[in-house]
Give the backbone structure.
Amino acid sequence: MKKKVIVIGNGMVGYKFCEKLVAKGAEQFEITVFGEEPRPAYDRVHLSEYFEKQAEENLILAPREWYEENGIKLCTGELVTAISTTDKTISTHKGNQASYDYLVLATGSSPFVPPIPGVHKNGVFVYRTIEDLDAIIAYGEKMKKGGSFKASVLGGGLLGLEAAKALLDLGMKPSVIEFAPRLMPRQLDEAGAKMLQTTIEDLGIEVLTSKSTTDIRGDGRIEEMHFADGESHSTSMLVISAGIRPRDELAREAKIEIGPRGGVQVDNKMQTSAPAVYAIGEVALYQEKIYGLVAPGYDMADICVAQLLQEDKAMEGEIDMSTKLKLIGVDVASFGDAMGELQESRAIVYEDKNKGLYKRINVSLDGQKLLGGILIGDAADYNMLLQMTQLKMPLPPHPEDLILGPRNGEGAAMGGVMDLPDQALICACESVTKGNLIEAIGEKGCETIKGLCKETKASTGCGGCKPMVNDLLREALKSMGKSVKAHICEHFPYSRRELFDLISVKGIESYDQALDELGHGDGCEQCKPALASIFASLYNETAVKQETIQDTNDRFLANIQRNGTYSIVPRVPGGEITPEKLIAMGKVAQKYDLYTKITGGQRIDMFGAKLNDLPQIWEELIAAGFESGHAYGKALRTVKSCVGSTWCRFGMDESVSFAVELENRYKGIRAPHKLKGGVSGCIRECAEARCKDFGVIATEEGWNLYVCGNGGAKPKHALLLAENIDNATCIKYIDRFLMFYIKTAAPLTRTAAWLEQLEGGIDYLKQVVIQDSLGIAEELEEQMGALVNTYQCEWKQVVDNPELKQRFRHFINSEDSDDNLTFVPLRDQKMPKPW
Amino acid sequence: MEALLAQYTSVNLASVTHWYEVAPVHQFPKNGGVCVKYKGMQIAVFYFARKGQWYACQNLCPHKLEMVLSRGLLGDENGVPKVACALHKKTFSLETGENLNGDLPSIATYPVKVQGEKVFIGFKE
């Protein structure tokens, strides 16, 4: 007979309880979960991301199917209204009843709304659920349309600052109003809070401290807030984030013991005063405190699961409230005894107002132990410092090195991640220790970060420990004599970058020669196109030379489509085209019955061309003055442009002329992935140049050059590389940048992803490209120059050579076309018959 | 659509009743594929020039039923010769026809023989 477990509350902690119980002993229990919200549990820690994407599925912790697959009955949108601890039953607002053997209260908390007159006016919100966010977004949009942008947040704690960031993302001008004299009074000291305040004020968020709100005024909706000091503040909306109140009303009515200021009393086993009833998360009052962080909540879930399984496990006496987060792009962390209040200590403080850095560590009076600290502006060392604090590890001889970094060329002050003891807790959310991770790497053979996180669950909570897990994986594999595999495939034990250098140094000229000298076997669909790209970059050979190592599109110099026919995109540099050429293209499309569509890159794509028609089609296009557009290649696609100063009344410079010049310069150049460019004639950015691998925007004083942007699945804006430069400098920098990318990126890595992996990021790239820190600028320019000067249109090569044209026959033994093709009408054109 | 697939069944060397002469060796791309038309069927023929080995299979990819396998990239997986489909990189063993990176149905394979300059595919009538 299975024991019945009822979980009230489907928030993060309630979900975690289910996950842990299922993992350890699902077969013994029949689990039912009641959640009052309409959807399954979601990630409230990353709620502000909802403002950016507004996609709730990104936040959902597990889909409904997960509950089904694990035999959990999930009742969402159903509020539990009463508990009978004597009958061991619960009842819901729908009139349903259920009995339990074990009851888990994970009802969480609700936002505390202070009893200020006017607090119920329209335009006043709380910040907790997706519904709250939807309401804030809708109201904010309405206010913006009416021309009011002023929004306020009551409360300058963690959540309040998150809310301010969300309002900023919404396009409002937020003010944060804090009762205490400083921001984040529970986590930061005065100097740290001041630094944080300055940084976020620079970002456009106003901060008002020592403000006690007495009154909210306005005609039906909020217009003004009044403070005890007599001042007032006008605002069109207000988000309240003034702390939390445990949702203990159910327990209270069931006569379960409640703390004097709320919260369900639990012991160190999460046991409440009622038998077989447990409380976990923000509703639980443990050691006279409520814990509003996710890590202690997860620990409580773990302890509670252990009770159900009759294991002997209890909550720690001291709950760690250390926290690290990125607030509005600013790293903020506080750990251990952050303010040095719990025991006597000496503080070491480092402050750099110029860079917005504040670091403080509290050292025990004997100078032996780290007790806690605060990091603002740069929290890269948080994990290591936290471990040193929690494990009471010995301090280095000069503890100040911990925040100042090593000097005089000495090694790192705190050692590497491998120096930590095995019990060091790397992922606090999921309680994963260094020992767990090492075991997973060594004994279970997890050799990728993805595999390791899947196996151990590390980094699946807040994700803050990811860099540390990454380091640990790399170091552990290294110590086992392995390295994180960057080999391009089983045939070549090298990364693309290594192959690029080896092929260049050894002067290897063909794929077969490369296999003989550097690899083994017959190759595959991964290494062949990767090496084809390297040969193209080194020798500027077109895809025609070694056609059978090219990816399908390159082999046939066209884009294969769903039914095995091809599409054709002639080059239209900068999107500028004469009426005569448009007519010529139209005639070709008409003759070969091609579906035509304008592309996003300002060109024309013609679909449905049969393989054996390609050479003839191109003969006609070339006769009309077209050349290959390389839409099929990992090569430069287009340089998109706006019309620029030649026609536009706002234009600052000739964007089309420059786009045509750039497109003609880089056309045909093969790269690890496709390349796109853009040129805008003014700051209005009509060419969307910042969504491109390189983008140029005209200013009053020249061009601003942006690099490493892309649209697609992971959109990313390009970053500023250089400002107010002239045409020649712009070309010089793009030459260097592209060649550096071509030589060093992994296969099929766009520039944005390449930059993400480039240690030092955009600052490093600036050093290489502008300051020439590696001393390779001249070489890069020469290499690019060689590519530019040896350009050939590969379609012209084919059209001029009868033997090459033979490659495009569908059958080796017949001139027929593929007889398996069927098209159906689509509007006034055609499309392949659906699969 | 099933009718299309049903046209293709593997032929092993022992059961060949007819050797169809395709074309001379020099017309085949090295380490690449071509497509052969034979009695309403499309057969892909691959020439692994490094080892002098030849393979043939249906040109129809069982994934989306398009005539594209001859245009795929050749290679090997742990020594097993394979072709990667031109559309979605589904890979198939050219020895057994088995789908190596998924659970698609196997493709039909055919024996190839080379006599002098002539390349033949074996069929069972």
